[in-house]
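Re: the 625-residue chain
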Amino acid sequence: MTHRGLLPALRAGWARWSGALFLASLLAGPAFPQGTPQAAPAAATSANFAPNDPPGEWHMQARDYANTRYSPLAEINASNVARLRTAWTFSDGTQNGHEAAPLVANNTMYLVTPFPNIAYALDLTKPGSPIKWSYAPDPTPVSIGKACCDTVNRGGVLVNGKLIYNLLDNHTIALDAKTGKELWRTKMGDTTHGETMTMAPFAVGNRVFVGNSGGELGVWGWIAALDVDTGKEVWRAYSTGTDQEVRIGPEFKPFYDWMKGKDLGVSTWPPGAARRGAGSVWAWISYDPDTNTIFYGTSNPGPRVPAQRPGYNLWTSTIFARDASTGMARWAYQFTPHDEWDYDGVNENVLLDATINGRKRKVLVHFDRNAFAYTIDRMTGEVLTAQPFAYQNWSKGIDLKTGMPIVNPAMEPKPNVKLPNVCPPDIGGKDWQPSAYSPQTGLVYAGIFNICMDLTDHPQSYIPGTPYDGMEMKRYAGPGDNWGEFMAWDPVAGRKVWSIREKFMTMSGSLATAGNLVFYGTADGWFRAVDAHSGKVLWSHKLGSGVIGQPMTYTGPDGHQYIAIYSGIGGAAMVSSTMPGFPPRGSTLYVFSLDGVSSATGTTQLETEAGGPAARADHGMGGKP
């Protein structure tokens, strides 16, 4: 379909919207400031917390397959969280954006740094949690110049006695969790063509799933499954191309008619454009063990200049449901057809069971970069609710009959023409930073943005391994002059329950616990704990750098609960780096406990018994543990 034919379809249904609804959608933004919480709903939702790892451990970035980031630990709770103090810290010395959560198993903490992607195992049984082993994989420095938005890494996964994570230069590696010995290393992509890898692998059984980054360099986006024991590739599905390349077969049944047809991953693109159309898979994967289905999103199309790629540009800015064993697609839904603003669809999908209009539904909750929060039937791909969670003006809303956004024509960019005040900007109403869900409240919690941009598109030629971009953006705060916000969202009603406005971006992940708490951090370095029901801030601590990592919690060898978060600003949060008060770079892990008590404190701590030095590439350790 041509761009000319696309616009009437996108605008279909506009006449059905009243002026009042239009105004409400157009002006949607932070609804409830701190101090005016709305009544929380009855918990009409639940989640499957498989694989049900030990309560005091944390084996994967989201802790469970459903991506809830919920912990059943409750020693630290709303009544005593004000007593949190620093128990111990660890600095890895890498001055790039720290976006990963630590992992904990068998009284060992595992860390993965940004480039050069060093892995550390810390012994939690010894005073000060010293280094047990470390591993420097020595990825090629060429990948630094190919990374779009800092040389970040979103962490590893512990599975079958292995720590598995991705390197920026397109290798997936597995280390022996006890010794740090490399067990296998698999090359997944080509750095010279602009591919990098920053996502955290996602493991189910004997399969580990990984995807590529590089949506701004015209890569061919893909997701792949590897054998956990050998690293051998089992299957690979591309985001664009023929049905065979996308792994679409007879069982593919999208809910909406405009996504039905043969080889739409080619025909919705100009001739020859699909294989450089991006759709990279660089963020989060969820898994439903009842149906053996994985869910994940794809990135923006390439180039980002929409005039150069008329058509819907399937399957970019899209969510896929796939058979985890075969990789065959079951359904898909494109959030932003013919994405004109770089609204990747890669954000996390939280899998819940919900009662909606009296009917029990298996759903997924997705806060898209286009600033709409979707509750989708994960069995069929039907959009059940879609409401703005952040200020936006690119759309008049989502037509639930067609699943189509109703595009505001005034917000469509044209080549070489400055388009002011587009909301949200390319980094969205929410970026990759993951949300959390609490079964105690039935709410989903997320750090979101209040940002707009002035946008100018410039036609862009394709040269492999170079930016295939063309977008020039100036970003600034939206109405209210705050860049960030932390909110609680009712996924059944599709509404904001309470929110906390922040001057700087809220780009950390979220953590919900059974102690009726939710934790998050800000780009200027505040780490906060809030009451999960009311949104009242109960505790805040200023860290040495900004927070863009993911908080987690674990039980130490002493039987007590700890909260951990990395401090190290970078990544997309650097768009606000010129603001007064923006912090310096950093690389410190902070671990908190009640009153700061741990084996790292006390009058008798005279020395530390460590298993080995840090394996840094500049120490010439050659990647050996």
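The CA atoms of residues 59 and 565 lie 15 Å apart.
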